[in-house]
Automatic annotation (TrEMBL):
Residues 26-47 are annotated as: Disordered. SUPFAM superfamilies: FKBP-like. Its EC number is 5.2.1.8. GO terms for biological process: protein folding. Residues 1-22 form the signal peptide. The keyword Signal applies. Keywords: Isomerase, Rotamase, Signal. Pfam families: FKBP_C, FKBP_N. It comes from Akkermansia glycaniphila. Residues 35-47 have a biased composition (Basic and acidic residues). Residues 169-250 form the PPIase FKBP-type domain. The keyword Signal applies. This is Peptidyl-prolyl cis-trans isomerase. InterPro entries: PPIase_dom_sf (IPR046357), PPIase_FKBP_dom (IPR001179), PPIase_FKBP_N (IPR000774), PPIase_FKBP_N_sf (IPR036944).
Length: 283
């Protein structure tokens, strides 16, 4: 467990750089026609101070997003003046005795992050179990064999996933919103998105059971979600709530063999999935 958390911390710290700052900028369309002169918008005129402020905020915001990948990190863990000085020295390729003193401090920092992570994981696990137990008693709540709970908001039609018809790699088109049990929204589709079945097990179970056209509120216990590897704002051992509207099931091209069940992606692939959806929502 500690090895995983140290890797997460190290990866997040190493990722705070200017490399890839524009990684989610949309690519320019090929052979785009030149706009007419009447349609061409003039670039806004900004003074130098405004440019500095806005670019500074942009870079700081990106650094903050990367640091947020350390689930238990907060700004009180670092000295703001030292952070700014480190940025300046890094830009100037300045290396001095301060860098030699870093490793012992990083060891203490990692230990603190580990301790907080363990405490958060335990608290989330207990809160999630209590939530699921109480939620199961509420009117309208049903439970799938896997333990996923759901409420039918809209029943939909008669068409459901069928391995003989849809194959074992169909595409599910849907709208969704993901929240923590405290109401925090961690992901939301702004337009229909398409997923294969290689998602967290609880989400996969819901998609397989839902009729096309249905809207469900789905409650996924941590053991069927991200377990201890909850990325970013999700955190370890988090119980998740999803509002899902299943719009369409697009049959796959592979042979119709019985699926082995919802497989869990690696933490790296799970993070890529979240980032891809955030980028899509931002466009």
């Amino acid at each position: 467990m500690k090895t995983i958390r140290k890797m997460m911390c190290a990866t997040a710290l190493a990722a705070v750089s200017l490399n890839g700052m524009a990684q989610d900028a949309p690519a320019a369309p090929a052979a785009a026609p030149a706009p007419d002169k009447e349609q061409k918008a003039e670039a806004p005129k900004l003074d130098d101070e405004t440019v500095k402020q806005r670019v500074g905020y942009f870079l700081g915001h990106r650094m903050g997003q990367q640091l947020a990948e350390i689930p238990t990190f907060n700004l009180d863990d670092v000295d703001a003046n030292s952070l700014l000085q480190g940025i300046k020295d890094g830009l100037n390729n300045k290396v001095d005795d301060k860098m030699k003193e870093v490793e012992p401090a990083l060891d203490i920092f990692r230990q603190r992050m580990d301790e907080r992570y363990e405490a958060k994981a335990e608290a989330n696990l207990e809160a999630g179990k209590k939530f699921m137990e109480e939620n199961a008693k509420k009117p309208g709540v049903k439970t799938l064999p896997s333990g996923v709970q759901y409420i039918v908001v809209k029943p939909g039609g008669d068409v459901k996933y069928n391995v003989e018809k849809d194959g074992d790699d169909p595409t599910f088109k849907l709208m969704y919103e993901g929240r923590l049990i405290d109401g925090t929204v961690f992901d939301k589709s702004e337009k229909p998105v398409e997923f294969k079945l290689q998602l967290i097990p609880g989400f996969t179970d819901a998609l397989k059971a839902m009729p096309v056209g249905a809207k469900w509120k789905v409650f996924i216990p941590s053991e069927l979600a991200y377990k201890e590897a909850g990325p970013g704002i999700i955190g370890p051992n988090s119980t998740l709530i999803f509002d899902i509207e299943l719009l369409e099931i697009i049959p796959g091209n592979s042979p119709a063999t019985p699926p082995a069940g919802g497989g869990q992606l690696t933490p790296e692939m799970l993070q890529q999935l979240l980032e891809a959806q955030q980028q899509g929502a931002a466009k």
